[in-house]
Automatic annotation (TrEMBL):
It comes from Ziziphus jujuba var. spinosa. Residues 1-23 form the signal peptide. Residues 43-142 form the DUF7731 domain. This is DUF7731 domain-containing protein. It holds the Pfam family DUF7731. It comes from the Eukaryota. InterPro entries: DUF7731. Keywords: Signal.
Length: 168
């Protein structure tokens, strides 16, 4: 009885030691973060880098300025310009901008709370042959989608953390 008890305790102790060591290591890591901050990209730096995609002169070349997507997340394509937008250079260049952002921060959120995928979906619907053709209002598209499906709502903070998780 006594032996099994001692054995049991030592197993327990053996299991706890790595946990407590690990615990203190991670505590130190958290405390040390400001000093080792340069090792990790800080979020504002990443967002700033992603924002450069909108002004990249090698991406936006032929797309007319007023149709260019920027950080606002709005696609300002008038209904009667649908063919020009969907068959012209803007479509490709907008997807290149989205790829550029996606490569830096997958969970990038536009000012209107749209995700990269939301913008892609809106463009696909707006340039599609269905009833949504010519409708490039991202907010309206989001509302329509939210009504169609139950969506998991994740706060912007978690988006940034998830985005960092992808990068690290
Ligand atoms: C984004 O583009 C729209 C026009 O499409 C413009 O009104 C708005 O000021 C731009 N926003 C930024 C932050 O450049």
């Amino acid at each position: 009885m006594a032996l099994t008890r001692i054995l049991g305790l030592s197993v327990l102790a053996a299991a706890l030691i790595p946990i407590s060591v690990f615990g203190s290591i991670s505590e130190n890591a958290v405390e040390d973060e400001p000093e080792t901050g340069h090792k990790f990209h800080d979020p504002t730096e990443i967002v700033a880098k992603a924002l450069l995609c909108f002004n990249d002169k090698y991406i936006y070349i032929n797309c007319e300025e007023s149709y260019r997507l920027n950080e606002s997340g709005d696609l300002n394509v008038p209904f009667d310009k649908t063919d020009a937008y969907c068959n012209g250079p803007c479509l490709d260049e907008t997807h290149l901008v989205l790829d550029c952002i996606d490569n830096i921060l997958t969970n990038f959120l536009f000012y209107n709370k749209a995700t990269i995928q939301d913008i892609r979906d809106t463009i696909q619907a707006g340039c599609g042959t269905g009833s949504e053709r010519g409708k490039f209002n991202v907010a309206e598209h989001l509302k329509a989608e939210a009504n169609n499906a139950n969506q998991i709502v994740v706060g912007p903070g978690l988006m940034v953390i998830l985005g960092l998780g992808v990068l690290l």
